[in-house]
Write a structure and sequence with these properties.
The protein is α/β, with parallel strands linked by helices. It is built from 15 helices and 18 strands. Helix 5 runs parallel beside helix 7 and helix 8 crosses helix 9.
C-alpha cells in the first residue's frame, strides 16, 4: 500500500516543477544473454546494479527490428499504423507520420526539457521529419541505422550531427554519446525536469571497439563474439557514466531510468535456415567479401553478429522469442523497490506508462495500442498480461495470455509459452479456435502501406555501416531537401 500511496501522490502532484526526470536508455541489438544479470560472460556491472536496485521486466517485448520499435516507443501505437514494418532505409522518403504527437512533444508541453542523444531512425528526408521538429530541443548523434563507430559513416555519407548540423569529430561513438549525455545532464535547465532519450548505437554492427576493451575478452574464441562483448562492455561503461553524473547532480532520487534493447540480438542463429544456406554457398564460391554491395550486406548481417539470445529461438529480424523478448530494467531510487516482474509489458506501453507517472494527458483522438503499466510495474496492483502484436516485415506474432501465434506467409504456428517458452512444439493443429482468435487480433490493427522503398531500389544503393564517403553528409542532404 505504501507504493500505491506514493503513486497517487506522484500522479496528483505531477506539476511542472515536481515531475521526475526521465532517462530512457535504449540499446541497439542487445541480446537477452548479453547482460550479466541474465547470465552473460560479458561484464555489465552498471546495468546489473540497476537490475539489483530496481524492477526487472522479465517479459518485456519489442518489435523485431529497430525502426518499428522506435516508432512504437514514440507513439504508444503499433508501427503497422505508420507503415513502418522494418528498418527505414537511408533513401526512404517517408517517416513516422507527421500528424502524430510524439512522446517528447507531450513531455515538452508538460514543462520538460526533451533532448536526444544517439539514433533517431524514424525518417530524415526533410527537416519536418527530424527530431528537432518532433519535440526535442537538443539532438546529437545520427539519423539513420548503424554507423561506423570510428568514422561515423552510414551508407556512404557522414551521419553525425549536433542539432541538425553535420559534425566531424574524432572518437568512438559510444564514448562520444556518453560525453554528450553527461554534458546535457550537467548543463540542463535546472528549472525544468529533464527527459533524456539516450538511444545508443551499441552494440549494433559493425563489430568495432577499442583495442584494450577487445583484449579484455581475449578468452572468447569467436572473434565476432569477442568484439561484441567489448562493445557491450563499452555500453555498460557509458551507462555507468550517466548514473554517476546523475548522482553528482543529486538527481537520482527524482529520476526514473528505463533501460531496454530495441530488438533481440543479431547472430547467425537469428537468420533463417534458407538465408544461412544462401550465404554459405556464396562464401564458398567467392570468399569474403562476396560480390555486390547487396550480397555483402546480407552476408555481413547473417554471419557477423555476435549477440547471445540465450535459450530463446532466433534473434533480430524474427518474431520468435529471440527477436522480440529483450532485457528491460526500471530504476528509481527511493520510489521503486527491487522486484522482478513477470507480467508482459511492451514497448507500446512506454508512452502511456510515462504519461501515468507524470500526470500528462494524452490526445484521446490518437489511438493507443499500448496501455499504462505503472501500477503493475511498481507493485501497486497485481501484474496482468497485455496483448501484443509484434512484426517483422511480412511476419507477425500475436501474444495473448499463455499463447503465441506466429504467422509467416501461409505458415501458421502456435506455441504455449507457459509450457514451451523456447517455441519447440507447434500446437496450431490442436487448437484451431485459438489460432482463429489470435489471427483476428492482427486484422484489428489498421495497416498502412509501407513507407519503405521496394527491394530493387534498395539493392541499387545499399545501406552500410561505416566505410568510405561517396556523398555529402546526411544532415546536409536533409537541409538541401527542405520540407
Amino acid at each position: 500500500m505504501r507504493v500505491m500511496a506514493l503513486l497517487m501522490v506522484l500522479i496528483s502532484t505531477a506539476a511542472w516543477g515536481q515531475s521526475p526526470n526521465i532517462i530512457l536508455i535504449v540499446a541497439d541489438d542487445l541480446g537477452w544473454k548479453d547482460v550479466g544479470y541474465n547470465g552473460s560472460e560479458i561484464r555489465t556491472p552498471n546495468i546489473d546494479a540497476l537490475a539489483r536496485g530496481g524492477v526487472t521486466l522479465n517479459d518485456f517485448y519489442v518489435h523485431a527490428t529497430c525502426s518499428p520499435t522506435r516508432a512504437a516507443l514514440m507513439t504508444g501505437q503499433s508501427p503497422m499504423r505508420h507503415g513502418i514494418y522494418h528498418a527505414i532505409g537511408k533513401n526512404t522518403k517517408g517517416s513516422l507520420p507527421l500528424s502524430l504527437k510524439l512522446l517528447p512533444e507531450y513531455l515538452g508541453e508538460a514543462g520538460y526539457q526533451s533532448v536526444l542523444v544517439g539514433k533517431w531512425h524514424l525518417g530524415h528526408a526533410t527537416s519536418a521529419m527530424l527530431p528537432m521538429a518532433r519535440g526535442f530541443e537538443a539532438v546529437y548523434g545520427h539519423y539513420t541505422g548503424g554507423v561506423g563507430y570510428w568514422d561515423h559513416v552510414h551508407g556512404g555519407g557522414l551521419d553525425w550531427h549536433r542539432d541538425g548540423k553535420a559534425l566531424r569529430e574524432e572518437g568512438y561513438a559510444t564514448h562520444l554519446q556518453a560525453d554528450e549525455a553527461v554534458r546535457l545532464i550537467r548543463e540542463r535547465d535546472k528549472e525544468r525536469p529533464l527527459f533524456l532519450y539516450t538511444a545508443v548505437s551499441a552494440p549494433h554492427l559493425p563489430n568495432e571497439a577499442p583495442a584494450e576493451s577487445i583484449a579484455a575478452y581475449g578468452h572468447i574464441k569467436n572473434e565476432n563474439r569477442r568484439i561484441h562483448a567489448a562493445m557491450v562492455d563499452e555500453l555498460d561503461r557509458a551507462i555507468g557514466r550517466i548514473i554517476t553524473t546523475l548522482e553528482e547532480q543529486q538527481m537520482l532520487e527524482n529520476t526514473l531510468i528505463w533501460f531496454f534493447s530495441d530488438n533481440g540480438g543479431l547472430n547467425p542463429a537469428a537468420a533463417s535456415d534458407g538465408m544461412r544456406s544462401l550465404v554459405s554457398r556464396l562464401v564458398s564460391l567467392f570468399g569474403r567479401p562476396v560480390p555486390t554491395d547487396f550480397l555483402e550486406f546480407l552476408r555481413h548481417n547473417t554471419e557477423d553478429g555476435g549477440s547471445d539470445n540465450g535459450p530463446y529461438r532466433r534473434g533480430k529480424g524474427a518474431v520468435y522469442q529471440g527477436g522480440i523478448l529483450v532485457p528491460s530494467v526500471l530504476y528509481w531510487r527511493g520510489t521503486l523497490e527491487p522486484a522482478s516482474v513477470s507480467a508482459r509489458v511492451t514497448v507500446q506501453d512506454v508512452l502511456p506508462t510515462l504519461a501515468e507517472v507524470t500526470g500528462i494527458e494524452l490526445l484521446p483522438a490518437q489511438v493507443l495500442d499500448g496501455s499504462a503499466r505503472w501500477a503493475s510495474i511498481s507493485g501497486a496492483v497485481e501484474p496482468a498480461n497485455t496483448d501484443f502484436v509484434a512484426l517483422s516485415m511480412d511476419d507477425r506474432a500475436v501474444l495473448r495470455g499463455e499463447w503465441k501465434l506466429v504467422v509467416s506467409g501461409d505458415v501458421v504456428e502456435l506455441y504455449n509459452l507457459a509450457e514451451d517458452p523456447f517455441e519447440q512444439v507447434d500446437r496450431a493443429a490442436d487448437n484451431p479456435l485459438v489460432v482463429e482468435a489470435l489471427q483476428s487480433a492482427i486484422d484489428d490493427i489498421p495497416q498502412r502501406e509501407s513507407i519503405n522503398q521496394p527491394l530493387f531500389r534498395i539493392m541499387l544503393d545499399m545501406d552500410g555501416f561505416g566505410g568510405e564517403e561517396d556523398r555529402p553528409p546526411w544532415a546536409d542532404v536533409v537541409s538541401q531537401a527542405g520540407d
